[in-house]
């Protein structure tokens, strides 16, 4: 699983029919401090995530193991919306907190 922030959406009116009904999100990978790192990925959304939310996503064959993406040609899927995380007892991120 990889931490990322939802930074946008992708709309594709023409796509493989098995992908119909999926929402696609643009994700920016983040480090453990919540700072942008690495690249971007387009992921199918299995959780109803929205812009600005921190999420966990899976890629590769794991992306096809959610109820939403089963038997679909997905390479990345948002499978959790993050509420908070801490490292060594210190809160690094809490949903809804601006700092």
Beta-strand share of residues? over 45%
Number of domains: 1
The outline comes out as elongated
Roughly what is the average pLDDT, rounded to an integer?
93
CATH architectural category: Beta Barrel
Task: Report the sheet with the most strands, covering strand number, pairing sense and barrel closure.
Answer: 5 strands, mixed, barrel
Report the span from N to C terminus.
24 Å
Low-confidence stretches: none
**DSSP strand tally:** 7
Please bin the fraction of helical residues.
under 10%
Structural class, judged by helices and strands?
mainly beta
In which order are the strands of the major sheet placed? 1-2-3-5-4
Name of the CATH homologous superfamily: EutN/Ccml
Output the number of helix runs. Answer: 0
Radius of gyration: 14 Å
Q: Which CATH first-tier class would you pick?
A: Mainly Beta
Features:
99 residues; mainly beta; OB fold (Dihydrolipoamide Acetyltransferase, E2P); 5-stranded mixed beta barrel; two-stranded antiparallel sheet; 47% strand; elongated
Please characterize this protein's 3D structure.
By secondary structure, this protein is mainly beta. It has one domain: Beta Barrel (OB fold (Dihydrolipoamide Acetyltransferase, E2P)). Helices cover 0% and strands 47% of the residues. It is built from no helices and 7 strands. The chain has a 5-stranded mixed barrel with strand order 1-2-3-5-4. A two-stranded antiparallel ribbon has the order 6-7. Strand 2 (24-30) and strand 3 (36-45) form a beta hairpin. The radius of gyration is 14 Å and the shape is elongated. The two termini are 24 Å apart.
